[in-house]
Design a protein that fits this description.
The chain is α+β, with helices and mostly antiparallel strands. The chain has two helices and seven strands, in the order ααβββββββ. It is globular, with a radius of gyration of 22 Å. The N terminus is likely disordered.
Length: 152
C-alpha cells in the first residue's frame, strides 16, 4: 500500500512537470522581439559603441513627440565574428529607400528589407528572416546595396 501511494505521488509530480513544460510559451521565429531592437536598446548601443557613425534622416531625440513611430536603421560595413561595427550609418525616419553600398550588417527598430541591388531592386530579404544573427540585434547581410524602410 505504501508503494502504491509513493508511486501515485511520483506519477502526479511527473505529470505536473510535463504539463508545465508543455504549457510554456515559445517565441515564434517571426516574433518581433526576436529580430528587432527597441529604441531603448538602440540608445544603449549608441551610447556604448566605438563605431564611426554618420547620421542621416531626422535628428535622433527620444523626447520628440511620436519619435517611436520613426524607424531607426543602423547599417555597418564591418563584421568581426558576432560583432557589427566599423563605419556605420544611422537612419531615423519614415518610408524610404536607402542607398547602402558596402553594408555587411544591420539592425532596425521596425522590420526592413535589404536588397543586393541599388534602388531597392534585385533580390531582397526581410530583417525578420535573418539567417545569421549577430550581437546587439544585428543581422549579417553581406552584399546589401540598398535598404527598404516602410512606414512604421
Amino acid at each position: 500500500m505504501q508503494f502504491t501511494t509513493k508511486l501515485a505521488a511520483v506519477a502526479c509530480f511527473v505529470a505536473a512537470t510535463m504539463t508545465s513544460v508543455i504549457a510554456s510559451p515559445v517565441a515564434a521565429e517571426t516574433d518581433e522581439s526576436s529580430y528587432l531592437v527597441s529604441h531603448e536598446q538602440f540608445y544603449h548601443w549608441l551610447a556604448t559603441t566605438d563605431a564611426e557613425i554618420t547620421f542621416v534622416g531626422e535628428p535622433i531625440n527620444p523626447l520628440t513627440p511620436r519619435a517611436a513611430q520613426n524607424t531607426i536603421v543602423t547599417y555597418c560595413s564591418k563584421r568581426t565574428q558576432n560583432v557589427c561595427g566599423g563605419p556605420c550609418t544611422v537612419y531615423n525616419g519614415g518610408a524610404t529607400c536607402l542607398a547602402a553600398p558596402g553594408t555587411n550588417c544591420l539592425s532596425a527598430t521596425h522590420n526592413v528589407g535589404f536588397c543586393d541591388k541599388g534602388g531597392c531592386n534585385g533580390s531582397c530579404n526581410q530583417l525578420s528572416s535573418c539567417g545569421t544573427r549577430l550581437d546587439n540585434g544585428f543581422c549579417y547581410t553581406p552584399g546589401t546595396k540598398s535598404i527598404i524602410v516602410s512606414s512604421a
